[in-house]
Amino acid sequence: MWTTKTFLTKTKRGNILKIVREHYLRDDLLCGSAACNVCPHKDDECILDVQPESICALFDYNHYLLIDTNVVLHQIDILEDDALKNVIILQTVLEEVKHQNTAIFQRLLEIIGNKRRKFYSFVNEHHKDTYIERKPGEKPNDRNDRAIRKAAAWYLEHLSIKGLTGHFPKIVLLTDDENNRKLAQDDGIVCCSVKDYIENVNGYPGLLDKLSKNVMPENCSKDALYPAHLTPSQIHAGIRNGKLHQGTFYASRDNFLEGTATVNGFEKQILLQGHIGINRAIDGDIVAIEIFPEEEWRKPSDIVLEDKAEDPGDLLEEESILLNTAKSAASADISPTGKVVGIIRRKWRQYCGILMQSKFPGATRHLFAPAEKRIPRVRIETRQSDLLAAQRILVALDSWPRNSRYPLGHFVRALGPIGDKDAENEVILLEHDVPHARFSEAVLACLRPDDWTITEEEIKKRVDLRSICVCSVDPPGCTDIDDALHARPIPGTTNGLKKYEVGVHIADVTHFVRPNTALDKEAASRSTTVYLVGKRIDMVPDLLSSNLCSLRGGEERLAFSCVWEIDENANVLNTKFHKSVIKSRAAMTYEQAQIAIDDSSRQDEVAASLRTLNALAKTLKQKRLDNGALLLASPEIRFEVDSETHEPMEVQAKRILDTNSMVEEFMLLANVSVAEHIAGEFPQSALLRRHPAPPPANFNTFLKAAAQQGFELDVSTNKAFSKSLNEAVLPSRPFFNTLLRIMATRCMQQAVYFSSGTLAQEDYYHYGLACPIYTHFTSPIRRYADVVVHRLLASCVGADATHASILDTKYAVSLCENLNYRHRQAQYAGRASVALNTHILFKDRVEVEPAVVLAVKRNALQVLIPKYGLEGPLYLPSDKFIYNEEEHVQICNGVVLRTFDEIVVRLSLDSTNLQHRKLVFQLVKPVIPGFSYEEMEVEAVDQPEIEIVDITRTKKRQKKDDVQIVERPQVVIDISKKKQETKSKKKKGKK
Length: 991
What we know:
Layout: E1 2-10, E2 16-24, E3 63-67, H1 69-74, H2 76-79, E4 87-90, H3 91-100, H4 102-113, E5 119-122, H5 140-162, E6 170-174, H6 178-186, E7 190-192, H7 194-199, H8 232-240, E8 245-251, E9 258-262, E10 270-273, H9 274-278, E11 286-291, H10 312-325, E12 337-345, E13 350-356, E14 365-370, E15 378-381, H11 385-388, E16 391-399, E17 408-417, H12 421-431, H13 441-444, H14 456-460, E18 463-464, E19 471-474, E20 483-494, E21 497-507, H15 518-526, E22 530-532, E23 535-537, H16 542-548, E24 556-567, E25 572-583, E26 586-589, H17 590-598, H18 605-626, E27 631-633, E28 637-641, E29 648-653, H19 658-681, E30 687-690, H20 700-708, H21 718-727, H22 736-745, E31 752-755, H23 784-796, H24 804-807, H25 809-841, E32 847-856, E33 860-865, E34 870-875, E35 882-884, E36 889-892, E37 895-897, E38 902-910, E39 918-925, E40 948-950, E41 971-975, H26 980-990
Parallel strand pairs: 3-4, 3-6, 4-5, 6-7, 10-12, 18-25, 19-26, 28-41
Antiparallel strand pairs: 1-2, 8-9, 8-11, 9-10, 11-12, 13-14, 13-16, 14-15, 16-17, 20-21, 21-24, 22-23, 24-25, 27-40, 28-29, 30-31, 32-33, 32-38, 33-34, 35-36, 36-37, 38-39
Family: Belongs to the RNR ribonuclease family.
Subcellular location: Cytoplasm; Nucleus, Nucleolus
Keywords: Cytoplasm, Endonuclease, Exonuclease, Exosome, Hydrolase, Nuclease, Nucleus, RNA-binding, rRNA processing
């Protein structure tokens, strides 16, 4: 049957429109209960048990739970626990949750999809006996509450009449809305608050810990530590009249009482200092900011401040230290300063960390210390603190009252013992929001069978390149091979120059990953493959990444080829793109390829192709450098990892070969060629990658440090910057130029994906590569951006149909946001994994090594140890050192410490704080009496050779084709496969 609703609306021009809406109602929708003997259920449709066992002492009879929207939104962690089963989720609730919180909506769908949990989704909005019309003047929320009560009453009646006589399950409505409970009781519906229900559950002692404590922060004024937040209407009015600004809050990693916010219209980030300035904002929150008058603006602090406060009094004392250090500053260092006056949208998630047990025996209230330093400690309640104290745990935030030093939260689940490798890796993945669950059945159903082979029909659609001498060059142990190359001479000359055909062949992932399938949606969500130490989190299932798509040696594979006609001076004469079939002659490592090039006795096709490629690559690289491309100094380190325990044993420097650069150059050329082509065909929706020029303010500290060494660097353009970096050489210090380049990378901005229709063409420019247009095409196995670019290019050359999503600008913008976020998080996760393994390496180990000062802070030196690629603070006591903030130097007993100074440090691991194990740097040389570490004999140590590599150099398996603006030198992990006997000998030798 149909219901209709008619209403009138007035257009902007004053015309009256009559709108009729129809709503379809049915009488054959199933209730989902196995206790019902009337609904025509099939066996797999009887989700709810015949006699659901009660686990709550308040209800000694069989019952189903029916829950309202707020229970889902605020108690999703309770619902995810296996304790609760036989739960009815109404369509009304699903739609409200989807509208208010998509992340929780996805979590709810996962619970409903798990048949073992027995959650049944009932379509009450289309059932003729449960649908209700909204009354005149009735608020949408009140109408939805009434719909929930109507459905609860219907279930009760339906089961009592149609069910098993004398044994039919009852209905218990769970709601924390007191008014809703009263109205439900008036209708004869049994109802209960979540807190009362969970507190009386038997047999699940940890369930109560997961109960969310929803305290309204602004209702408290007694002993308030923080100012009240403005209401949404006040925030909206303030932003509209220009008195307030919206921005994203970013907490400082070095100073817990400082943060910044990005606000449109301001070149610099807005500085937020002190507990009032931050006002309970947490990293990632969208906040409303009031900006102070210019005379009250300050400079960012140069002090490292950790949260060690036990009470609000300690907090205020630490804050006075911070604010007093930022009063005077040169005008160039001053940043717009303001304070948070309201929260527009919380970006809270679940956080990993450890429990800091209360000092009082038997206490249930404890502090939780997050692994992420930018997140404050959290107050939680738990009765299992003795058990959880040795575990890595997951905690969710609930609220932050004005009178609470820290936010309130609740325990979600334990991840494993502290120090356990699997638990620590899980922490890294969760903390960096890396999707790492097993691929769903729906995703796996999209895959081809394991024994799939290329059909003759498919070969006829493509250019057959199986006779061409193609080979791949990758890091050792690489199984996700997504690119291969070939080069061969072409008869004749152009302008007297020899000609070559050069091809880059990329795995044709889009042949297997079709648009809008479950596999495609999962790949889009993950966006990138994530590489940890000895562990890979694939973007697509292993069958594709390591088999069907991987361009393995000696096997026929589908590819998307970019083929150029190039002269011997590396001028591109012609470019063509086509889908192809290839058969790689060899899958080589960089070292194997280098040996083939250098071995003059090898005259086979593979060696000849590699030599041609290598010669052309050197010319291509020099052209890029002449055009202003930047170079980055990057000491790369390789860990030896025990093949059984997977723990790092030793570290050694990694050699950089010509073949690394050879592959990079052709990947760059392919990406530029594809970018030009797709932007020409799809000027409004091409997916491109840009690298914005850094704001001049980013260079202030860097230029001052370079000037102290006698160099005036020109940063007006990337070409001028590259030239002045090349000239900044100190003959007496061969590593100085390398260190200068390391510091230069700190001034850069991140490269980002964008849709061509959202920016003017002059903004497409890639600063690091010095090219006007760029994209990602060469790694579709591990990057979803490349998958999209393949679809665009295939449409351009007629190799595939044009999909609607390709032309959807709104979709492209949201896709780019996710790509940028996932790419950034993957980088951070990789660095965190390196840090974890570094800490394992330095457990019970002390080293004395040469180091260099990268930055001078008010209370610390930021130092780098080139041998290990490690960086950290060397703290300086304020009673011994005098800080000159104009020159950024520290002075003690006539010893002056500046940026770029060479020093010697003692390196050890401090494990006293289990949550934040950290490397401790102690000064050995220069010797400062009363401060330097002098108790141990210091052996002379040679500083390792540091390679200068192109800024396009990437981490292991992040390979060859992008600018990496990194925050620390790169570290590459190598899994050792040494025999146990060899390892034992080495260990004995050490002893």
